[in-house]
Amino acid sequence: MNVHEWPLTAFTILAQMAVGAFVTLGLVNLFAQTKYSSKTVDRLAKPALYAIGPVMVLALLASMFHLGNPLNAPNAIRHVATSWLAREILFGAGFAVLGFIFAAATWFGWFNAKIRNALAIFTAIWGLGFIWVMAHVYMLPTVPAWNHWTTPATFYISAALTGSLAIALAFSAWPIVSTKWPKLDHALTGANKTENQPAQTRADIQTQRETISLTNQATNWIAITTIAMLALQLVVGTYAAAKPAGPNPADVDPSPTWYAIRLVLLIIGAGIIGLYLTLTTHKNLEGSQHKPLLALTLTSFALVTISEIIARFLFYGEMNRIGI
């Protein structure tokens, strides 16, 4: 594996995770609002939303380590009309700024719901465009192994897998976190502390039940998504393995063992655990039963993320330049 490209590996995986998480969270919000109260949706969605920002910031910071002089990064934007790299910087920074504005609007209650929804949709579309631009940075005629439709396909699948599992992890973790740190829950979601008033107590119980139900429903659909993405990744991987090789050898000759490890981790994390979650999350999880769900989503997220890291190192190792 080409482990020397760790800044680009970290940047691409984290950035794709951030985009995938934002899109997944938007879809969850869209469908949840038709069945659950806004208080319940916000109870889970807001903490997850605020966690996406730091992930994108880490991605941008990681990308700086690939530059000879990070202070020269703004100069690349001047060539946005001709350079995919310049477009990547523009789209990456744009997604971060749009995401920050949307998070701030959600936190402070700026604008009305329609404007915030429009901003969220625009940010999601911009993020998807960011991944498209990111993929085209690598689709160079001089690098046959990368100049193939499987490059953007792999990037989008990675975003769907890591992003959706990140949201599942956030949803399953938040009931435990909010119970342990109620002040944090109040700060992020505006949840009121329990009062000794019957009406307030009944409202809290109802919100708690809806939160459990929404967590189960969201985790179930995310698990189905991961299984579908696993199947799609196997198809894309088959095409990628069958694409014509360049005339020159790759920079790094990877061991088949790493491909096998990547595949096993992906099948366990996205396939087996995903199938188990699909079959079990229809049940209502009460109290301490949140911990097994958290353990499963955390394990799935970790295995899939490690699998994607290995795959990205293998991707960079496939570089085989021609014509120079």
UniProtKB/TrEMBL annotation:
Biological process per Gene Ontology, one example term: anaerobic electron transport chain
Spans traversing the lipid bilayer: 6-28, 48-69, 89-111, 118-141, 153-177, 218-239, 259-281, 293-315
Source organism, top-level taxon: Bacteria
One MF annotation (Gene Ontology) recorded for this entry: dimethyl sulfoxide reductase activity
The keyword Acyltransferase appears for this protein: no
Gene Ontology, cellular component aspect: dimethyl sulfoxide reductase complex; plasma membrane
Keywords associated with the record: Membrane, Transmembrane, Transmembrane helix
InterPro entries listed in its UniProt record: DmsC
PANTHER family membership: ANAEROBIC DIMETHYL SULFOXIDE REDUCTASE CHAIN C, ANAEROBIC DIMETHYL SULFOXIDE REDUCTASE CHAIN YNFH
Protein name: DMSO reductase anchor subunit (DmsC)
Organism: Gleimia europaea ACS-120-V-Col10b
